[in-house]
Amino acid sequence: MSRLFASVRARATLAATLVVAVALVAAGTAVLLSLRSNLLGEAGTQAERSARDVATELAFGTAYGDLSLDVDDRPVQVVDDRGTLVAAGEDLERISGTGVDAVKPRPAAPGDARDARDGDDGDDGGDGEDAADDDGDREPLEPSEIGEPITVGDGSATIDGDTEDYRFAAVPVETDDRGRLTVYAGAPLSAEHGAVNTALTVMLIGFPVLLAVVAWVTWLVTRRALRPVEGIRREMAAITASEDLARRVPVPATHDEVARLASTTNQTLAALESSVERQRRFVADASHELRSPIASLRTQLEVAAAHPELLDLAGAVEDTVRLQRLAADLLLLARLDAGERPADARVDLTALAREAAEGRTGVTVRGDGAAVGAAGSRGQLGRVLANLLDNAQRHARSAVEVAVRRDGDAAVVAVADDGEGVPAADRERIFERFVRLDAARSRDDGGAGLGLAIARDVAVRHGGTLTVRDAPAGGALFELRLPSA
User: Which of 72, 415, 439, 447 gets the highest tally of CB atoms within 10 A of its CB?
Assistant: First the structure.
């Protein structure tokens, strides 16, 4: 069992750790993607700002040689309509990602610019990836007008021997004398890479530590939660070893599922104790009841063996019949306790009552003439009526009346006598096994005290009830109610 608890703790710890791990990976991925997106956006904004600054200078007619191209050591290119590099930073040694790989400017002649304005495409020095060089997609600009930026994307550049990744932005500008120009400017992505790498490093270090803490806390919490269950297990093991059903398992004051489990376990132990005690009492009472007829029969046989002329044959037969009836009653009770299901046949209670009353003195059967049916075992229901009639005749002064009727969805058989009745305090006790209210009554006249107990058990097994109350004319009225068929 301890292995089971350890396994439960291990499974709970593993499940909690896996859930937290999945949540952390999802959250970490979202954070990294959001951080990268924000940093890329910021780099794009910086690149756009640098490109617009140069485009503004071009719009005001600043010569290529006077442009601010080496501010903050960022890669800058100025390209004309033909894709020819006309201006670039002095320290620019290599560039990719702008569509123009040239790093040494070759200014175009004024005539070339006019030809470009007239629609002469000339020789395109780019690779066709620059959206600013697509005449069909751009809107015409007025002289000295700066267009909207077109983000080319990510690339790299080497400036003064240092190679880095950059975010490039392209800004078109229309000039009076040089035609349409495009300014490419880049912003370094070193901050973005550094921030993402730092965040990733923190996650790779912090997540395992956090998962270890979660696993440790879950292990401790699960162990604490299962501690009452272990107490219940130990107590149940002790009860099993000692066979002391009067003991109870401890109920924790947590009012949770474990507390309810302990309460249910105690209720089960109480029911088991009651059942075992009832079984022991039943066996003891049965042994006591069997002792008298067996002793009487043995005595008669021993006397007959010594003095055959003194044999009381009628008494021996009577004791044998008593033993046979008692054994039959005990066998029926054992079958009922074992949960034997009654047969599902339709029984006419009116006819069954007349059969049970046949040959009995002072017993009358009253009915409305219609058949009153119930589903069940004809033999067991006949035994109930016979036991009720035996009990009524034993206590009646002169008459017993049996009434069979239908009451809604129930079939009712009422057996009334004109005797002294049953005291209210004993109306449930008389249905217990081996109970006889008249202690002075002889066993020969009173029986073993199993008749009413058998009748109640059979009624319950058939889904009905058997109760007793005062009869209208005095005496006791036993009422059997069964679901009608």
Answer: 415
